[in-house]
Known about the structure:
By secondary structure, the chain is an alpha+beta fold. It is 22% helix and 40% strand. It has helices spanning 7-14, 18-25, and strands at residues 28-30, 35-37, 39-47, 50-57, 63-68.
Amino acid sequence: MPANFTPSAQVFWLNIPPDIRERLLGNVYCTQCRKMTTITDYTGRIEQGDLILDGVCSRCGSAVSRLIEGDAY
């Protein structure tokens, strides 16, 4: 189970197939690098039915976020 996730975010995240979760983690835009990157050291929370992942860019260490819309899963 993901650490640092709210309970509702854990349920949402675990309902996504594992291969899709990996693709989502590797498809995050970094405003510092100005490129797609992988999010690391991430946390998860639900806001207005959407999952928000907040973490760190694997390239430069800047803060990055990934929104996963609630009605997508």
